[in-house]
Structures are given as structure tokens and as C-alpha cells.
């Protein structure tokens, strides 16, 4: 390990040399109270910026035990450190001048959710902060004094104000960790109380706009109906009251623009902890909850959808169904089966984004088209069995078909963003309008036969490396998907993905799977279990050959399944 003075001398020696001379700086340098590591040097000033990291021992950082005692407190501490570090970097980014990305200093931008990110890792020994720096140059000639300004003037100040407990707003940090512990406490209490979700009184559910996750100003606070109100005792906040959604089939209804989908959107993101001021801090959902919808055109491979679809006219086998271009109904059926395989215990559906023929067949249609001529067993006829036989609850937003009232255990009407429990009223009306008796095919658990084929890389046919296997390259297209090799993976309809860094992590996980786990024998479930265990034990280290960079956030098991299922083999 070299000293900061050595780094300074090296900078002086390469000043005004060609840009590749910056690569000689790669290494770890002792800055006294912290170690500074140059992990990857960009190829030129117009390329993606260099990867660097700061390492501070726990003894030097001085954070108290309550910040480090378990995974919840460590993830929250990491989240707070990233947010604070970003504020400091914003003050100095591009203060050093040069061409291209010269002077850029950036780190992950955190949203409303608290996610475990590669930008900050807290080990048993130290805090590691990873970020990007654009090494300055004029054209492609090194401008070492500008990098010296970044590393010796700007960076020490940012590190001091962020990574040392004595210099931070410790009250704000304490409140953030206490909030996360309260949110985790609610999530752990849900199964004990027979609930799948909880929305606290006073929560602000509407968002500022369709493209903003910030709370809407002057919106109506959430108030639970008395019949569904529960009280929870939390370790820090004490007693909170709110609406508890019980296990079973819950229907959310109401007029247009009265808040049905707004409530469902809050519940689907209730699988994550949220920061203070978000408005949904105490809207908590079972951690395995999965939002489902139809996805016309999606890829399906070897999924047993026979629980919902049988006897297709083309004689296609639905016990091991594959298609490159799924319809709305087959895509939604596959999504439910894949969700069962992923271990989800709550399905969230919105009638607006579901395939109508998959969800329900009304009495008139049943009279016209007989059961023998209809291959689809609608979700309406399976929802009760999903709960009674497999323990999977459903929360469904409905606005057009009244058939769902007959199977609902709980019915919530949204009236001007205020929930009203109308279960008893609905049951009395249903008795006057019975459904035609139907006998759906016998319920059976689907069989998983899905195996990821062994990856065979394409062979280069021209240029550098002719005759050698092509390397799998990744290009992330925001939150909605990524390109891996020549294959596009479309994640637009995975609605519980909240951050581009989760998508980037999914791309790395798929790349690792294809290169190391896909052997033609291992099932999707076995593959996901291995990936989840490696993430738990090794963080992102195993994905980047021992080196980890900023720019990734750990996704849930459900999203890992969704990604692997949408890769076109």
C-alpha cells in the first residue's frame, strides 16, 4: 500500500502525458483516516468515468453499535451515507475542468425506497463508499493538477462530512434507522395478525405526478374504516393505527379517479421500506407480494399453465407451454404460475391491466360459449382455490365486472381517496344476484420443468479476436430492460422494479447465470436459490470477479425470477 504523498508524486510525474498514463495510478493509497482506492481507470476522458472507493475502519468512523447491529440497520445506514455523500459531491462535481467527463464526481442517486446498494457496503471491519470520478484531461492530455484538486481538496472534505459519526447529523440518522426498524416490525407482525398488508392512518398515498414518486402536496390523508382498523405497537414510534388487509381475497372498488389504483400502487411498493417524508412510510405489504398483469408478446418457456388454460385448438401442450409471442391471457397465466414458483403469498392485480378473458366470463358468455369450447379457466374460478389450497391471497382492483364480489372475503370501496368497508353490504346484495353454478376443472399444483439451457457463445467471424467466443456484454436501458449479448430482456411490466440499479444488477445476475450456472440440468428455482445465497454471503463480489463498483442495487427474489423467465433462450 502506498501513501497519499506517493499518489501526489505520481500525479506530478504524469502531468501532460497521454491519457493512458492514468492507468499507472491504479491501487490503494493511505490518506491517514481513510484508504483511497482507484479500482478502474477510464480509457479516455469521454468514456465512462473511473471507479474509485474510500475505505474507513469502524474504529475511525465511530458509528455506534445500534447502526451496525443487523442487516436492517446496516442497509439504512448505507442508504443515509449515500444520500449525504451525494449532497457533498454535488457541491464539487465539475469544479475541476477539462474535456468530456473531466471533473465529474458522482454516486448512486437514491429514491424514495431504501435499497441495498453496491455504492456503500458495510462489512464487519469497515465502511466502503464506491463512486465515480472523471479523471481530468485537456483533449487526451492528462491534467494532473485538476485531479490533484479533486483527490486532495474536494474529496477529504466530502469524506469528513459524511463518513465520520462526529461530523454528521446523528439525530437524523437515528430517526432513519428507527423508522426502518418500525417498518420491519410491521412486516413481521402481519402474518401473526392474519394480514397481508397495512396502511397507516395519515399516510399520503397519491404521488405528485405519473412520473414522480414524491408525495402529492395538499392531498387527502388516508383514514382507515373502523371495521378494518388495527393497532400495532412498534419499538420506536409506539402505537400506530391503520387499515389491515386480511388474508384471503380482497376487492378494491369505487368510481373512476377515486383512488383504487393509487391504493394498489402504494401496496405494491409496500414490499420496500421508505424514507421519512415519503407519505407511505407505514404502508407495508408482505415481502413476497407480486404485482401481475398481462404482457402481450412476452416470451414463455416450458411453463405449466394447465391450471388456467387447457385443450387448445392447435393441440399445444399447456402442461409445458412455450411461445415467443404470448397473448394477454397466456402471459398472465404464466405470470401467476411463475409467481407461485417464486414463493409469493400475495398477488396484486388491477382489472385495467389484466386480460379480460383471463379474469372473468360472465353468465351470458357462458350461455353462448359452452365450457367444452372455452380453453380458459378464468381467474375468478381459481382465486378461492389459490387461497384455500395454496395459501395465496389476492388483492384485486375491479371497476367493471361485479362477478368478483361473489368470491371476495373483503370489499373496500374507495370514495374520494377514503376507504369504506362495504363487505356486509356486498354480501347481502350478492345473495339476491347469484352467479350461475360452474364446475371448473380440478385444482392441481403446476409442475416446474423449466431449465436454463447451457449458454453457447457466438464465435467471432471477423476483426480482433476472430475465431474466439464473443464475450457477453451488457447495456442497461434504464429501469425497463437491458441488452445482453444480442438479446433484449424486456422488464417494462415488472412494476415493482423501482430503480435502474436493480435492473443493472439483474443484468449482471443473468450474465453470471449464463456463464456459470446454466448447465442444461439446473432448474430456474435451483438457479435463483444459488444466486440469492451468493448475494447474501458475498454481496456483489462474485458478479464482478472480486471487484465491486458503484451502480447496483439488490433486487428481490421475485424480480430475479421475472428476469430469468423473460430471457429468450
Can you walk me through this structure?
This protein is α+β, with helices and mostly antiparallel strands. Helices cover 30% and strands 21% of the residues. The strands form 8 sheets. Strands 1, 2, 3, 4, 5, 7 and 8 form a 7-stranded mixed β-sheet that branches. The protein has a 6-stranded mixed β-sheet with strand order 19-22-23-16-24-25, with helices on both faces. Strands 14-15-11-18 form a 4-stranded antiparallel β-sheet, sandwiched between helices. Helix 3 (71-92) runs antiparallel to helix 5 (170-192). The chain starts with a strand and ends with a helix. The mean pLDDT is 93.
Alpha-carbon distance between the two ends: 45 Å
Over the alpha carbons, how many angstroms does the gyration radius reach? 27 Å
Provide the residue-averaged pLDDT: 93
DSSP strand count: 28
Low-confidence segments, ≥5 residues, pLDDT <50? none
Into which percent range does the helicity of residues fall?
25-40%
Characterize the biggest β-sheet: 7 strands, mixed
Tell the overall outline. globular
What percentage of the residues does DSSP assign to strands (E)?
15-25%
Structural class based on helices, strands and sheet pairing: alpha+beta
Number of helices: 14
Amino acid at each position: 500500500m502506498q501513501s497519499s504523498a506517493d499518489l501526489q508524486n505520481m500525479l506530478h510525474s504524469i502531468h501532460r502525458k497521454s491519457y493512458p498514463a492514468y492507468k499507472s495510478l491504479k491501487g490503494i493509497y493511505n490518506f491517514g483516516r481513510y484508504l483511497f482506492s482507484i479500482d478502474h481507470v477510464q480509457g479516455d476522458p469521454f468514456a465512462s468515468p473511473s471507479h474509485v472507493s474510500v475505505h474507513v475502519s469502524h474504529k475511525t468512523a465511530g458509528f455506534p453499535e445500534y447502526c451496525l447491529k443487523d442487516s436492517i440497520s446496516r442497509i439504512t445506514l448505507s442508504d443515509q451515507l449515500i444520500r449525504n455523500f451525494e449532497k457533498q459531491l454535488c457541491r464539487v462535481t465539475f469544479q475541476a475542468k477539462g474535456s468530456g467527463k473531466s471533473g465529474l464526481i458522482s454516486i448512486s442517486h437514491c429514491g424514495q425506497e431504501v435499497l441495498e446498494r453496491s455504492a456503500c457496503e458495510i462489512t464487519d471491519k469497515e465502511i466502503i463508499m464506491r463512486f465515480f470520478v472523471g479523471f481530468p484531461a485537456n483533449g487526451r492530455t492528462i491534467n494532473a493538477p485538476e485531479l490533484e484538486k479533486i483527490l486532495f481538496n474536494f474529496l477529504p472534505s466530502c469524506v469528513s462530512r459524511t463518513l465520520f459519526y462526529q461530523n454528521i447529523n446523528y439525530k437524523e440518522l437515528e430517526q432513519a434507522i428507527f423508522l426502518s426498524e418500525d417498518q420491519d416490525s410491521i412486516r413481521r407482525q402481519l402474518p401473526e395478525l392474519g394480514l397481508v398488508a397495512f396502511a397507516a392512518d395519515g399516510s399520503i398515498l397519491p404521488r405528485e405526478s405519473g412520473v414522480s414518486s414524491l408525495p402529492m402536496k395538499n392531498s387527502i390523508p388516508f383514514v382507515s374504516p373502523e371495521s378494518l382498523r388495527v393497532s400495532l405497537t412498534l419499538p420506536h414510534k409506539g402505537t400506530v393505527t391503520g387499515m389491515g388487509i386480511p388474508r384471503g381475497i380482497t376487492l378494491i372498488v369505487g368510481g373512476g379517479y377515486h383512488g383504487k389504483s393509487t391504493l394498489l400502487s402504494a401496496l405494491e411498493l409496500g414490499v420496500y421500506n421508505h424514507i421519512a417524508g415519503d407519505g407511505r412510510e407505514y404502508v407495508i405489504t408482505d415481502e413476497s407480494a407480486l404485482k401481475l398483469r398481462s404482457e402481450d408478446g412476452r416470451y414463455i418457456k416450458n411453463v405449466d399453465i394447465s391450471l388456467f388454460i387447457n385443450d387448445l385448438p392447435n393441440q399445444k401442450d399447456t402442461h409445458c407451454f412455450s411461445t415467443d409471442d404470448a397473448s394477454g391471457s397466456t402471459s398472465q397465466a404464466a405470470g401467476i404460475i411463475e409467481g407461485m414458483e417464486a414463493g409469493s403469498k400475495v398477488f396484486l392485480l388491477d382489472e385495467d391491466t389484466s386480460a379480460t378473458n383471463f379474469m372473468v366470463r360472465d353468465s351470458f358468455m357462458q350461455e353462448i360459449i359452452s365450457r367444452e369450447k372455452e380453453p380458459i379457466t378464468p381467474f375468478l374460478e381459481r382465486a378461492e382455490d389459490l387461497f384455500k389450497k395454496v395459501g395465496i391471497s389476492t388483492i384485486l382492483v375491479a371497476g367493471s365486472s361485479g362477478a368478483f364480489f361473489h368470491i371476495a372475503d373483503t370489499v373496500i370501496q374507495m370514495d374520494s381517496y377514503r376507504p369504506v368497508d362495504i363487505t356486509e353490504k356486498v354480501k347481502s346484495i350478492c345473495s339476491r344476484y347469484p352467479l350461475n353454478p360452474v364446475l371448473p376443472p380440478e385444482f392441481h399444483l403446476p409442475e416446474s420443468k423449466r431449465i436454463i439451457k447451457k449458454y453457447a457463445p457466438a464465435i467471432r467471424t471477423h476483426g480482433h479476436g476472430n475465431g474466439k467466443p464473443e464475450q457477453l456484454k451488457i447495456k442497461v436501458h434504464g429501469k425497463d430492460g437491458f441488452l445482453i449479448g444480442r438479446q433484449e430482456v424486456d422488464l417494462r411490466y415488472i412494476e415493482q422494479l423501482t430503480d435502474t440499479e436493480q435492473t443493472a444488477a439483474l443484468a449482471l445476475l443473468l450474465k453470471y447465470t449464463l456463464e456459470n450456472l446454466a448447465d442444461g440440468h439446473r432448474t430456474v428455482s435451483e438457479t435463483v436459490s444459488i444466486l440469492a445465497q451468493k448475494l447474501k454471503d458475498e454481496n456483489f463480489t462474485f458478479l464482478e470477479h472480486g471487484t465491486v463498483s458503484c451502480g447496483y442495487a439488490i433486487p428481490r427474489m421475485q424480480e430475479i425470477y421475472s428476469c430469468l423467465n423473460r430471457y429468450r433462450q
